[in-house]
Amino acid sequence: MTTLPLDPAPIRALFPAFAEPSLNGQAFFENAGGSYTSQATLDILDHYYRATKVQPYGVYAASEAAGQAMDRAYKQLAQALNVATDWIHIGPSSSANTYVLGKAFADWLKPGDAIIVTNQDHEANTGNWRRLAERGMEVREWQVDPETARLSLDSLDTLLDEKVKLVAAPHCSNIVGDINPVAEIAARAHAVGAVLAIDGVSYAPHGLPDLAALGADIYFFSAYKTYGPHQGVMAIRPDLARALPNQGHFFNDAKLRYRLTPAGPDHAQIAATAGIVDYLEQIAALAPASIEGADPFRRAHAAMRAQEVALAAPLLDYLRSRNDLRLIGPADATTRAPTIAVLAKEPGIDIARRLARHGVMASGGNFYAVRLLEALGIDPHNHGVLRLSFVHYTTPEEIQQLISALDTELQ
Q: Which UniProt keywords apply (predicted)?
C-alpha cells in the first residue's frame, strides 16, 4: 500500500471506540451508516449535560453558557463550510430536515413549475421532492447510466429549461460513491434560475466541503456520520431561507434558525456539533506539511481524502480482480468516496452476516436507494448489495482483514 499521509494511531486515539474492549479486533466497514463519535464531540456533550442542561438563552449564568455553547456550534460549522453563520440550520436528522423543506417548497413553488430529481439519491433527497407532483409541480428525473450508475451532465442539460425552479442531486451516492461535479451542476441550475439542493450526507464524512466554491443554495448532511451527535445540519442561502414559507411557530417568523427546523431543538446535541469542527482542526494539526489548504478545514479535507484514496486502492484492485462481483460505480479511488458497494450472486446481507465471523462489520441491502438499484437491474428488496464503507481512521491492516474475509467467504 502507498505510504499513508496520516498516521492512523494518533487519529484513532481521538475516538473512544478504538479503546473499547468489546470492539477490539472488529474492523468497522459500515461508516456510511454512521461513523464513530469523536472524543471532542463527547466532551462537549458530557459537559453540557453536567453543567448547562437548562433552558438556554436565559438571564442566569448556566442558561447564558448553554446558549453560548449552541451559538458556538453554529459559528464553528459555518466557518468550516466557508459560509456566514446565518446559513446554518440544525434539525433532528437529514430526512426530517428535507421533509420540512419539501413542505416549504410546496407552498413556495407554483403549479406548472418543474423540479429535477435523480434516481441516484438516497430517498431523503428525492422522495420529499417527488411529492410536490401532488401539488401540481412537474417532476423530471435525471437518470443514471444503467451500466456505470453515474450521472451525466449532458443528460442534465436535456432536462433544464426556464420552467425548472429546483434541482436536487447528491454530492455522492451512498451506493455508487461517484463524486458528482457540484460546481458544474450549480452553474447549470443557476443559468436557468433554479435553486440547487445538494445531499452531502455521503460526502461530508470524507471532509466538509467549501460551500462558497460549490455554489449550492442548499447543502445538508448528517452530524452522526461526521463524527458528531445524531443531528442533521443544513446550510441554506439566507435570502432563500427567508423567502421560503415559515414552517415553525408564527411568532418565530423573524428567527431564521427556527423557520425551517420546527421540531424543538436538542440543545445539548446542537452544542456538541461543534465537536465535529474541533475534530477537523485536530486532523489538520496532524497532517504533514505536504498537505496544503487555505485554512485548517481545507487541509483536513485534503488529508482525509488523500488517506482514503490510499486505503481504497488495494480494495478496489481486489474487487476488480473478481469475476463473480460487480463493482457499483467507478473503480478509480481518486474520483469516488470509499463507500463501496458490490453485487454478488447472493444477497448482500447474507455475505455481511458471514463477514461478521471474521470481525468485519459491514451490511447489505438497498440503503434507502431503492430507485437506484431498480435502475441498475438489482432487486432492492430480496437481494440488494454488499456495502463496504470506511473513512480516514481505517487502517491498512483492516483493509487486509476485509480482503481476507471476502476471499474466504466468496469462494
A: Aminotransferase, Pyridoxal phosphate, Transferase
CA 104, CA 189: separation in Å to the nearest integer? 20
Locate 228 and state its grid cell.
458528531
Residue type, 389: S
Whose cell is 476485509? That residue is 402
Give the pLDDT confidence of 316-349 residue by residue, as tens digits. 999 999 999 999 999 999 999 999 999 999 999 9
C-alpha cell at 83: 459560509
**Which DSSP string corresponds to 255-315?**
-HHHHS--SPP-HHHHHHTHHHHHHHHHHHHHS-TTS--SSHHHHHHHHHHHHHHHHHHHH
Burial category of 90 from C-beta neighbours within 10 Å (exposed 0-12, middle 13-18, buried 19 and up): buried
**What are 250's strand-pairing partners?**
none
Which set of grid coordinates corresponds to residue 344? Answer: 454478488
The answer to whether position 344 is within a domain reads: yes
Quote the domain boundaries for residue 202. Answer: 44-277
Residue 224, classified by CB atoms within 10 Å of its CB into exposed (0-12), middle (13-18) or buried (19+), is buried
- Tell me, yes or no, whether 12 and 71 share the same domain: no
Distance CA 116, CA 32 (A): 25
Q: What is the pLDDT of residue 263?
A: 83
The angle subtended at Cα 291 by Cα 286 and Cα 292, nearest 5°, is 120
End-to-end CA distance of the chain: 24
Is there a single domain that holds both residue 273 and residue 299?
Answer: no
DSSP-assigned beta bridge partners for residue 234: 89, 220
Side-chain-facing half-sphere of 366: CA atoms under 13 Å: 20
Residue 269: pLDDT over 60: yes
Which residue from 21, 17, 19 is spatially nearest to 38, judged by alpha carbons? 17
